[in-house]
Amino acid sequence: MAGENSDSIPRGEAALLARMLPHLRPGPEVEVGPGDDAAVVRLPSPRLVVTTDTLVEGHDFLGHATTARWIGCKAAVQNLADVAAMGAVPLALVVAISAPAGTPATVFEELTIGLTARTEAEGASLVGGDLGRAEHLTVTVTAMGSLPLDQEPVRRSGALPGDVLAIGAPRLGRSAAGLALVLGERALVRPGADGRPTVMLRGIQDPSAARLVQWHDAPDPDLSLGWTVGRNARAMMDLSDGLVRDGRRLAAASQVTLDLDGAALAPDVEQLSGLAAELGADPWSWVLHGGEEHAMLATFAPGGVPAGFRPIGQVRAPSGHGPEVLLDGAPIEGAGFDHFG
Questions:
Q1: For the structural domain made of 13-147, what CATH number should be given?
Q2: For the whole model, what pTM was predicted?
Q3: CA torsion angle for 220, 80, 125, 105 (degrees, to 10)?
Q4: pLDDT tens digit string along 199-242?
Q5: Is the fold of 13-147 the same as that of 156-331?
Q6: Residues that bind Mg(2+) 3, according to the entry (predicted)?
């Protein structure tokens, strides 16, 4: 990452691990941690929830606009969110890091710090992984969680007509706004010696801009909603690829139509309108189609939306067009993020 080259290039995998492993603090559920052929983790339940995801430099992040610590945090969040969206409690993560030859040791160490900090914040442990060489920095995380024997997984397919659509976040569109600053070459991130990066802005007056870049680089949703009050949801998923795109996935799985409430989303749009005006962008696009929020998107029975969630729409029976996502009863243009779109 830009500016993270103050350390000498390590000599071999053992030297890298000597920098990385001291930052791991396995919890009491870990019987065997890093250093053996595999980790051994005590399961609180025989029902294991498993997911995996990858971040690739140049596709999922740009080196000049983030830091290794933030990349580690983001890699943990996007996987922990998938576990949480099933109603499961995070348990353990393993990570594979591949990087070009000559990558400074501090990048590996900072990645580990970011991964470990976010993993431990959710009560889980980073228990091992793998190091390799690649043309671009790549971070692949596999996350594991557990479900109690008497708890059904919260799937995408349980929404019913009459349910309330809700989001476990106070605002939407933040990550997309931060990404717009990055792609518009209006933001540059410099790492600090204390681990606190500085976001440098070019030609931007909006006071929230730096925070939006940070939210894009290292989103900080309340994932605990998934395995606490979210267990009462009829359907749930994490918001990875945008409200409309992910909403269509939930609608298709449940064979329903989701009708978004424009008045409920208007405050989200309003808070982004100043920056959008500076960038010549549409804040509604950020709110409706912006990805990488990783908040819990769920449906609840009428009157059952719990604290931590806020209503943003209604679940209706599908029309003749089949399952879809509408805004105040009208079709929505745009598709959201697609890796191969």
A1: 3.30.1330.10
A2: 0.94
A3: -70
A4: 999 999 999 999 999 999 999 999 999 999 999 999 999 999 99
A5: no
A6: 37, 82, 238
Instruction: Please state the domain extents for the chain.
Output: 13-147, 156-331
309 annotated as a binding-site residue:
no
> Is 152 annotated as a binding-site member?
no
Closest of 134, 124, 139 to residue 20, by C-alpha:
139
* pLDDT at residue 9 greater than cutoff 90: no
CATH number for the domain formed by residue range(s) 156-331:
3.90.650.10
**Residue 37 annotated as part of some ligand binding site:** yes
Residue 112 in marked binding region: no
pLDDT tens string 234-244? 999 999 999 99
The reply to whether 130 sits in an annotated binding site is yes
Query: What tens digit of pLDDT does each residue of 20-48 get?
Result: 989 999 999 999 999 899 999 999 999 99
- Quick one: which of 107, 129, 127 has its CA closest to 119? 127
Instruction: Provide the 3-class DSSP secondary structure of residue 55.
Output: strand
Q: Is 82 annotated as a binding residue?
A: yes
Say if residue 60 carries a ligand binding annotation.
Answer: yes
E strands present in the chain:
30-32, 40-41, 47-56, 89-99, 125-133, 138-147, 164-167, 187-190, 198-201, 235-238, 257-260, 296-300, 310-316, 325-327, 330-331
Q: Is 36 annotated as a binding residue?
A: no
